[in-house]
Amino acid sequence: MQLTLESQKIEDVAVIRCAGRLVTGEEVHSLSLEFERMTQTTKKIVLHLAEVNFIDSVGVGALVRMLGVLRNQHGALRLCQVSPFVLKVLQATNLDRIFRPSATEKEALEAFAARLPSPEEVPSASKTRIVCIDTSNDLLAYLRALLQRLGYETFTTRYLTDALTLVRAAKASVVICGPGMRSNERAMEEFRRSASGVPVLALPPDFATSEASQAGRDLVSRIQSVLGGQP
Question: Are 46 and 14 in contact (CB under 8 A)?
Fold first, then answer.
């Protein structure tokens, strides 16, 4: 089912009601455009997700990115009436602790009226550092949120040259390369040689479009295997 959006301004809060699949491609793009349109007049956004029946890694990353954008602008993003499927994904990736969805739209609006603070991310306490590279900002946002919630210090970039600098400066334990990096195999081989000694995990081609919680579990399992089980 293609994503459909219905927006409404309630006083100084914008409510965007979503129905369908929130996945990489036109669906995430259309939500991003609507988000940008609504944030031109308010920095208080409620996403109503009762009828979102599927979300992939990029879809989750888009939500994380929007949350970050609003926080940087002293605003807030709240989720409400999250569908069972989306809630399962958020719980499986520990991202429900970031968003803390409201049970109803009314509760989300009341939270703004009461000026309740948005939930904050828990700072990473781990010394295990991971560098993530991909061309998609939304996928990077998903990886950063997922790995930080699990206690990894995470750095992200869209560029291999910057990634190599991060690997060396941060003394990274693992590098994760997203599907977007597969288009330049020669550059990737050069990167692997330059980052010799640091394990490089390549995400599968369908990672971005896979069901987000399963994709996250598989990735964490691979990371723990490389690290020998250490957190």
Answer: yes
